[in-house]
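INFO  loader      accepted 1 record
INFO  loader      residues=260
INFO  predictor   begin
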Amino acid sequence: MARRPPSLKFRIDRLYNGRGETSRRFRYGLLAFDVLTIAYFMALSLIVAPNWVLAIDIVLGAVILADFLARLWISRDRRDYFLSLSTWADIVVIATLAMSPFLESYLFLRVLRTLRLLRSYPVLRDLRHEFSFFRRNEEIIQSVANLAIFIFVVTALVYVLQVRTNPGITNYIDALYFTVTTLTTTGFGDITLQGSGGRLLSVLIMVMGVALFLRLVQTIFRPSRVKYRCPDCGLLYHDSDAVHCKHCGRVLNIESSGDS
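INFO  predictor   done
INFO  writer      dumping tokens
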């Protein structure tokens, strides 16, 4: 009896979650698409959009919608899928692309697409497997990415919430300037957020932003560590050249490519 060909759902699931070369190339293609669309959204915020941009928005919206529906279809737990922050970020992005003629300043919420880059386990798995540099510096890379994404998202929120009422914020660069000066606690004071909502957003930026900066600095200047669970005490992170677990003294057998 001839074997039945794999179902379409199975083939799509393999593309998103498989370990083969085709699957890896597909995921790298999605990653490149995400990065390019984010760059496009950021660049578009600095110019007066020509009429043909609407056609690009429709095409991008269709691709992101197809990706969203494919992930939903192959999801093993759709409740968890809809509880994911990146899922709702995609819904917002799709809505802004579909209704771009009517949303005006809310188009800047498209940078929420950066949340897709935060947690994509299959892609992270591929990067760990193929690039020793990523394996050695994964924690630093993720910390820098988290900080950049936080800045992009908060800047978008500042712009959306303040552009119509705050004379100090007339474009995305103004919002970015305010976000970075607040984040670094420089606070020149030439731009402040208006209203109670604006003040609460300023507090959020300062509290969360300073915490992210401290985390980033700790990650960069801390001695290089590798992830390896000690069989005895369970300690997860060790110095890259560790021979013994510093908690229990067990001899460790940490894999190394020899180039660190």
